[in-house]
Amino acid sequence: MDRIVVCLRADDPISRAGVASQLRPRPEIRLQEEGEETVAAVVVVVVETIDEESLRTLRHIRRTTAARMALIATRIDDQQLVGAAECGVAGILRRSEATPERLVQVINAVARGEGCVPADLLGRLLEQVGQLQSQVLAPRGLNFSGLTDREIEVVRLVAEGYDTGDIASKLAYSERTIKNILHELVTRLHLRNRSHVVAYALRQGLI
């Protein structure tokens, strides 16, 4: 059995020692020393609450390693939950529920590329995401992809093989407008050309 390489980051040495003592006896886990996140498959971050310092730690891990992240926290409110998700956290566990068995379940799920969040927290996260879409993005004509409905429609027609003139005719825009939309997408998303825009949209599930 391949062991999952895990690195711990904690607010304080007592918290780190407590979680480490739960993981060391587990045959499916190989615990690395703190500071060796670059070789870890999963980094487990242990905090009291998800504050700005915690979010900076999560962003740093995401930016500097390829490891997936799990978070153990004593207190989690709705805004903190969204912040952790934005930083790439895939598994969340309340400290009061962090038994050795549950902790290993979360680590296994995260290592497989799955999400693992308590049902009540998942419901709250989805509610927050829905509010963000309806109150912030939708009034600006955006969705979570960062593309407007008009941009998605243009890319869909490009993917179907229509040229600029055909797209302009179908959508009742000028050819110049269609060219500007595609140029804006290439520039904003740091893509190379129309084909790259289509590939991006396909990967994101937009078309």
Automatic annotation (TrEMBL):
Domain HTH luxR-type residues, every copy: 140-205
MF terms in GO: DNA binding
Record keywords, A-Z: DNA-binding, Transcription, Transcription regulation
InterPro entries assigned to the protein according to its UniProt record, in alphabetical order: Sig_transdc_resp-reg_C-effctor, Tscrpt_reg_LuxR_C, WalR-like
GO biological process terms held by the UniProt record: regulation of DNA-templated transcription
CDD domains: LuxR_C_like
Domain of life: Bacteria
Keyword Transmembrane helix assigned: no
Record's keyword annotation contains Chloroplast: no
Pfam families associated with the record: GerE
Designated name of the protein: Response regulator transcription factor
Source species: Streptomyces adustus
